[in-house]
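From the shared-data thread, chain only:
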Amino acid sequence: MLPLIGIAVLTIGFTVRLNPLAVIVAAALTSGVLAGMAPLAVIAHLGKAFNDSRYVTLAFVALPVIGLLERHGLQARARTRIAQLAGATTGRLLILYLALRQITCALGLLALGGPVQMVRPVLAPMAEGVAQARLGSLPPPVLRLIRAHAAATDNVGQMFGEDIFIALASILLIKGVLHQEGVDVAPLQLSMWAIPSAIAAFLIHGARLSRLDKRLARLAAESADAERQAGE
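Structure, as tokens:
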């Protein structure tokens, strides 16, 4: 049971919001050493796992590409275009993206969205542009709130949409674990059971996003009143 202490290290580290990479390495070292492994052997296993999953380094290729696009006005163009649409609001934009994200993830197209490829360079500036076109200049805390909702929308859409795709690693992992316990379930059955969860996630998060416009209007009015009182 001693190697399970690594789980406690992981939980405590994330609870106090330490560096995620340091927490994961500390938890792995704790579990490995308590299981009788040498520290260098634990580090070697971590390196092998990372090397076997080299696709995770693709983000390092996407980052400079996104940086070049932003340098040439990607965010400004996205902000300007969406602000010209009549009837567009921040909440409606994010609800539309939530639906598209869930549908594309259900089809296995996970790379079409994400924090690096979509949220920071396109979705967040568009959401900010819509809000500023309707409410005027917004203070930094309100802009950060919009960015947080944009990132959350992408995460919710992917998390509850990807399990519908039967060839995804999570579906295969669930099937493998159940098979080891003597429960045989077809991947298609697991995918079908993921559909009600995806629908519930869309309704719940969509309701939160539908209230976002009223919240932004209230915060913008409060900020304007504060600036007016400070000027007086």
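The chain is about 80% helix and 0% strand.
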